[in-house]
Amino acid sequence: MTLDDGALDVLFRTARTRNGWTDTPVADETLHALYDILKFGPTSANCSPARFVFIRTREAKEKLKPALNPGNVDKTMAAPVTVIVAYDPIFYEHLPKLFPHADARAWFAGNPDLADETAFRNGTLQGAYLIIAARGLGLDCGPMSGFDKAKVDQSFLAEQGWKSNFLVNLGHGTDANLFPRSPRLDFDEACVLA
């Protein structure tokens, strides 16, 4: 099965990074549906290290605000939801459940460099799946990396021991502050057929 052009446009070609937002809320049920889609994206050994904090209340947004770079404050405060895309450095503790046909936990326990590299890489993949799944559910996205990781980790993730990777604003976007589409590299500039 191949997606039609309309679906590919929604997911990639006409989708835009949004900076302006309507005040239409995003229901908790939609956030559950979003996770229930993105969790099926592939990760190495099904390690699934990504963790997501859905910031949707005014109090949580105010708690996040001091960690944001100045250029990200207004759009983040206006977005109905901001997702902290994080990862669990000890994701491997779940591997007996997630990858039961081998002792995959032993690959990472006692090897923090491999565990951290695996968690970060695969958690980033899962963050990308979140963006694609959100677009598939009719939501707009505004991913960003302009924030103080230490502040976010301390304020939102310390209790779980998770580490932040990037943020994604979610909601129904407007054309406010929408930049013209930037160019992309052509195939021959970015790819090699070997």
From TrEMBL:
Domain of life where this protein originates: Bacteria
Keyword vocabulary terms for this entry: Flavoprotein, FMN, NAD, NADP, Oxidoreductase
SUPFAM superfamilies membership: FMN-dependent nitroreductase-like
Matches recorded under InterPro entries: Nitroreductase, Nitroreductase-like, Nitroreductase_HadB/RutE, RutE-like
Stretches assigned to the Nitroreductase domain: 22-172
Listed Pfam families: Nitroreductase (PF00881)
Example GO molecular function: 3-hydroxypropionate dehydrogenase (NADP+) activity
EC number per UniProt: 1.-.-.-
Cofactor(s) required, per the database record: FMN
Entries under HAMAP family matching the protein: Oxidoreductase_RutE_HadB
Family: Belongs to the nitroreductase family. HadB/RutE subfamily.
Record protein name field: Putative NADH dehydrogenase/NAD(P)H nitroreductase L2A60_14425
